[in-house]
Amino acid sequence: MKSQITYRNAEEVDFPALLKMGEQLWTKIKKDELTTHLRNACNAENKKVILALTPEGEAIGFSVFSIRTDYVEGATTSPTGYLEGIFIEAEFRRLGIAKNFIQQGEAWCKEKGCTQLGSDTWLTATESRNFHKRIGFWEEDELVHFLKDI
Predict the structure, then answer these.
(1) 46, 82, 87, 108: which has the fewest Cβ within 10 Å?
(2) Is the distance from CB of 29 to CB of 2 less than 8 angstroms?
(3) Whether 141 contacts 108, CB under 8 Å
(4) How far is CA 125 from the centre of its chain?
(5) Longest CA pairwise span in the chain (Å)
(6) Residue 11's Cα: distance from chain center in Å?
(7) Residue 89 phi/psi, 5° resolution?
(8) Residue 6 in contact with residue 53, Cβ under 8 Å?
C-alpha cells in the first residue's frame, strides 16, 4: 500500500475531504472559521496544502506548510518555513506518509528561500510532541498563555 499512495496539491474538488480531515485535526475551531482558513491556505502563494491519496483517489491525509516572515520561536533566519498542520487517517498511519509530507514541504520551503522549518503543538499533546521529535524537530521552548477578564 505504501508505494501506491500518491501526493498532490489540494484542489477545489478535494475540499469536502480536506474539511472533514481538518475538523478531526483542529477540533476547537468552528466549521465556518476552518472553512475560511483552509480555503485561504489552498489559494495563498505563501502556503502549500498537500494531499495523500489511495490508489482509488480517496484523500487519506493532508499537510499545510507556510512561509512566515513574522517571528518564529527560536528561528535564526527569515523567512521561515512552517508546518501549520498535518493529519493522516488512523488506519493509514505508520506507512511513511508523514515523512513524505515533511520531505515535500521542506523542498517547497527551500525553494522559497527558507533554511529552517518551524511547527507547534499544545503542551499536553504528547502524541504530537513525540511525532515532531521522531521526524527531526527539537523542542525550542514551552509557552503557557494567560488571560484575565478585567
Answers:
(1) 46
(2) no
(3) no
(4) 15
(5) 56
(6) 16
(7) -55, 140
(8) yes
Measured CA distances, 126 to 99, 122, 123, 130 (Å): 19, 8, 7, 6
pLDDT of 34-58, one tens digit each? 999 999 999 999 999 999 999 999 9
Residue 24, C-alpha cell as written in the block? 478531526
Q: How is residue 105 written as a grid cell? A: 514541504
Q: Give 107-128 pLDDT, tens digit per residue.
A: 999 999 999 999 998 888 899 9
Q: Letter for the amino acid at 99? A: K
Dig out the grid coordinates for 93 from the structure. 498511519
The string of pLDDT tens digits covering residues 61-94 is 999 999 999 888 888 889 999 999 999 999 999 9
| The amino acid at 100 | N
- pTM of the entire predicted model: 0.90
